[in-house]
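Throughout our pipeline, every protein is held as a single compact record rather than as scattered files. The record that follows is passed on verbatim for readers who wish to inspect the format.
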Amino acid sequence: MSKSHKSIIYKLFTVLLFALSLQISTAQEVDFSFLNTELSIEERAEILVSQMTTDEKISQLVNNAAALPRFNINPYDWWNEALHGVARNGKATVFPQGIAVGATFDPGLAQRMADAISTEARAKFKISQEMGNYSKYAGLTFWTPNVNIFRDPRWGRGQETYGEDPYLMSKIGVAFVKGLQGDDERYLKSAACAKHFAVHSGPESERHHFNAEPTKQDFYETYMPAFEALITDAKVEGVMGAYNAVYGTPSCASEFLLQDIVRKKWNFDGYIVSDCGAVNGIWEKHKADSTPQGGAALALNAGVNLNCGATYPYLKQALEEGLITDETLHERTVQLFKTRFRLGLHDGENNGNPYNNIGADKIHCDEHIQLAKEVAQKSIVLLKNKNNILPLSKDIKIPYVTGPFANSGDMLMGNYYGISPNLVTILEGIANTVSLGSSLNYRSGQLPFHTNINPKNWAPFEAGESDVIICVVGLTADMEGEEVDAIAAANIGDKVDLKLPQGQIDYIHEMVKHKKDKPLILLVASGSPVSLEGVEEHCDAILQIWYPGEQGGTAVADVLFGNVSPSGHLPLTFPKNIEQLPPYNDYSMKGRTYKYMTEEPMYPFGFGLSYSKTELTTLKLQSPKMKQGTDLVASVNVTNSGNFEIDEVVQLYICPADTSGGIPLKILKAFKRITLKKGETKTVEFTVKSTDLMVINTSGEKVWRKGNYKVVVGNSSPGELSVKLGAAVPQELIISLK
């Protein structure tokens, strides 16, 4: 070896030794006491973040947070979904869509479902970590649930919500969050997130630049309650800012929304994340600033901790230009690590975290599959049952199953879905239920969104040769959903009208021509109201099955053939047609939902039949007069006078005698789901807190409004239509607020 080579090697060795000494020195300088689980979450986050450089902090404020090698911290991607099962992350149990969960009117069931989802999430997270998978959708921070009010049935993403009523939305949403986050005093099972804050429910085509300006009354009566409940009651860990502006300011740049309401009024101590790309939208779409660093600064200063997107790297430039301070950058980063510590992400395996021990055997286990079936069963709504044609006999000789979604797996899944290895279609569910001697036949008959029927199509003629026709029609997430996913939608994810696709309507009419006197059972799959004008009168029975999840076929068959009685109730109003609706982009609640609608819809909120008969009697109030500070206590007797064991949803509404000043016509204040055996009577008691009897005035203030109110208890929302369609005759009494 030459002297020159030796010299080069020596110099390289010297450099390596120097670098190694620097690394050792740096490692020694790191204060790892942030790993001390005896310290508070706040102390640990402060110790860690106070040691970070500016670049390191900024690297943690985006959804795909970078690794921090000198702290031994792995990369972490915050973006994850769990709307009705662990989504976009491989094998998982696919539960019914969110709107179907709303139709159960069963918060306890919603909590059990969410608990199962977070159990699978923990098991999958452990496996992902072990194999070094730190990618999107593999974490524990779920951007779920969606508690935007389903104010207009044209909104494609309404299927993600629990319906049109703030009270129902709050009860189901709170339960779902509690199921996702667990009940351990120290650790979160997973981190839920209330989205999209605020006043966000379409149109999808305008969401990136739309400015919502509801009245203060609508803002606090309709758009705020679910978010408030999730933050103050369920202690949700995350809040997602919406794309749209509210009162002229982009939601993710609104100190009114994120500071005055969320942080100060509701005392929120979790993290705030932007919807994906919304920070970029502050300057590029809403033009609230002219530069990306300006938009990033507006979001950070307003309170957004985490940017789902790629705009927060401009915070370095914003800092140099004096648009943000080191203190604000520090505070926003600390908040994110409080969430990570609450999840136990940096505590190792042997730290007493009860969720570390959940094994792979819990992923898509039998228990969760059965739970998915139970949720689907309890979500199915019986809208019509002429001459009690349902339930059908399992020994029926020639059942005919048809329709574009009779054998569809996509229809079961809705949007934001996981992947199940054993989807059960409607056809499969029926095949597994009817007698082996039944001559079950199937033809799809019509393509889902095609406009014409092939003249040589023999499917309609099969109807006349069968004992019963079971036709499965409706929509899928291809037709309604988020703007980027609804690839078959004519209006960027939203519906143009409420009708079935014309080809499906034509196919139903073709079958009606050829079915002779055979009964037609219509199953409607959708995540939103579908108008059945011109169709309903030709059907002997109608079931609304939503997007019922992986066990949808089994659940539908169980209902059709009487293994269980249908017990779902509509979580939103089904209008007759689009003419009954105000303009889609009008965020005023006037004329919308059961609370403000004056026209008669096709099916009312809260409606749902069973295979039995429900009777309500002897409504009692603890007192017919109430002063502020006194709770409303009511009881009613509920009797199953039919021949099937049923679940019933008993609903209590308040109807003001004076609805001037924008007060709702009727308001759901309480509900209970009960099981009744044949001939059984149960006394159902309700307590409505005094504060829940207050109303929102035109100034947005919650006030005690004196006067007479009708207390109505039934199994559907009050109105002649409910009783006409077969709901129980409600019980009514007058109460006077003094």
